[in-house]
From TrEMBL:
Annotated SMART domains: CBS
Name listed for the protein in its UniProt record: CBS domain-containing protein
Domain of life: Bacteria
Record key words, sorted: CBS domain
Protein species of origin: Ancylobacter radicis
Residues covered by the CBS domain: 7-68, 76-133
C-alpha cells in the first residue's frame, strides 16, 4: 500500500500556516482543528517547516507564554522529512520511527499534496493485517 492510497481514502486537506504567522495563531489553529501538527508553507505551497504540539509545549514550557507572539519560523522544525505519494506504508513507518515524529507531509513536484499521521499509518497497517488474516482463514477453511 502506498502513501497515495492512504491520501485517496482520507483526503488531501492539510492545515497550513505561513512562517510569519505568530505561534499564538498556530496554537489556535491546532486547537480549533484538533490536529497535532500544522505544515508551514510559503506562497507557492512549498513546505518550509512543520510545527507540532510538542514544539509548542516545549518552547512555552521553557521560555514562557511570551513566546506566543513570536513568529512560527522561530519555533518550527525547518528540516522537514517528507514523503512522496509512491512511497509504501513500510517506508513511511521507517521514516517516522527513525525521526521520532508523528506527522509526515506528502510532497509532489515540490508542493504540498497532503499529510500522513502515525494514526493513519497504524489504521492502514491494521486493516492490511486483518485482510491477510482473513485470507489465511479462508485458505485454511478451503483445504
Amino acid at each position: 500500500m502506498t502513501v497515495r492510497s492512504i491520501l485517496d481514502e482520507k483526503g488531501y486537506d492539510v492545515q497550513t500556516i505561513g512562517p510569519d504567522a505568530t505561534l499564538r495563531e498556530a496554537v489556535e489553529a491546532l486547537a480549533d482543528k484538533r490536529i497535532g501538527a500544522i505544515v508551514v508553507t510559503d506562497a507557492e505551497r512549498r513546505v518550509v517547516g512543520i510545527l507540532s504540539e510538542r514544539d509548542c509545549v516545549r518552547v512555552i514550557g521553557l521560555d514562557g507564554p511570551g513566546r506566543l507572539d513570536d513568529a512560527v519560523s522561530t519555533v518550527m522544525t525547518s528540516k522537514v522529512v517528507t514523503a512522496d505519494g509512491n512511497e509504501t506504508v513500510h517506508q513511511v513507518m521507517e521514516h517516522m520511527t527513525a525521526g521520532r515524529f508523528r506527522h509526515l507531509p506528502v510532497v509532489q513536484g515540490g508542493k504540498l499534496l497532503g499529510i500522513i499521521s502515525i494514526g493513519d499509518v497504524v489504521k492502514h497497517r491494521l486493516a492490511e493485517m486483518e485482510r491477510e488474516s482473513h485470507a489465511m482463514r479462508e485458505y485454511i477453511m478451503s483445504t
